[in-house]
Amino acid sequence: MSTKHPIIAVTGSSGAGTSNIKEAFEKIFNRQGIKAAVIEGDSYHRYDRQEMERRARQAAPEGRRLTHFGPEGNLLEELEAGFREYAEHGRGQQRHYIHNEADAARYGGTPGTLTPWTPLPDNTDLMLYEGLHGGLITDAVNIAQHVDVLIGITPIINLEWIQKIQRDKTVRGYSSEDATDMILERMYDYVHYITPQFSRTDINLQRVPTIDTANPFGAVHIPSSDESYTVIHVRNREKLAVDFLYLLDMLHGSFMSTPYTIVIPAGKTNFAIQLLIEPLIKRIMAAKGQE
Predict the structure, then answer these.
(1) φ and ψ at 148, to 5 degrees?
(2) For 161-183, b where at least 16 C-beta lie within 10 A, e where not — what string?
(3) Which of 9-18, 72-81, 187-196 has the lowest mean pLDDT?
(4) Which residue in 271, 149, 162 sits closest to 203, CA to CA?
(5) How far is CA 201 from the centre of its chain?
(6) How do residues 186-195 score in pLDDT, each as one tens digit?
């Protein structure tokens, strides 16, 4: 971890909704005048879409799993090195995975490919990472050790699958069958590389629907915020020093389910993140200014 060049990581599975949390951080950064270096976890995929599919087909007869959740499908050593470089020197590189035509129009290139590496902007105040592996620890890498604030986004599994299938269909052009097959192919890596991270986080957010999601593979729409609650569990009480009475007062309709777990209407999640995280970011920036 670094006082001079802090790193915030938002980690979660594909379809968990980590990208939505970036909006809350953008509001905080705008209010505080913070210049952030933003890193997309997808940019550390080892292969473009076509090459990944080819190598996955080759791996299957050999009994090997090749997915974007596991080490073989990602540049995890390079990701850790990038975190270390930023923490020590405030420098690094970035690129983008082009998911669809909208990304292609924004970044140039073809859907399913990766843009070239470019340097991060100069003189950034902190790094914000959003992706699959912000809290990963394996025999080969320890990415979590470089992170100052680690946030887990973990909707209940049926909702996560609904969100992934619907996103893959509408945004990435996959069929329901293709999206479902991807979930099944990734299950081993999901269990061994994704979920263990949520025991290392400072805070976890878990959206829970209040409607029937018993068959996520037959769902036709994603439960709305009005049909969900968000369970927020503060794991690192010393770091966040949360005033839960204040949160209960500010977040109408919320309640405490344990001494360190608040349940809020899902529509207030963005606001809740700001209330929880902005005081911590202020302390981080104050410590940075004392260096």
Answers:
(1) -85, -35
(2) bbbbbbbbeeeeebeeeebbebb
(3) 9-18
(4) 149
(5) 12
(6) 999 999 999 9
- Check: CB of residue 141 under 8 Å from CB of residue 193: no
What is the rounded distance in angstroms from the CA atom of residue 95 to the CA atom of residue 42? 9
Asked if residues 67 and 129 have their Cβ atoms less than 8 Å apart, the reply is no
pLDDT of 120 reads: 97
- Report how far residue 205's alpha carbon sits from residue 117's, in angstroms, rounded to the nearest whole number: 32
Residue length of the chain: 291
Q: What is the pLDDT of residues 264-277, one digit of tens each?
A: 999 999 999 999 99
In whole angstroms, what is the distance from residue 72 CA to residue 66 CA?
A: 6
Instruction: Tell how far CA 286 is from the center of its chain.
Output: 26
Alpha carbon of residue 192 to chain centroid: 17
By CB atoms closer than 10 A (0-12, 13-18, 19+), residue 148 is buried
d(CA 46, CA 76): 9
Structure tokens at 138: 């394996």
Q: pTM, whole model, 2 decimals?
A: 0.92
Q: Which backbone phi and psi does 85 adopt, to 5 degrees?
A: -65, -40
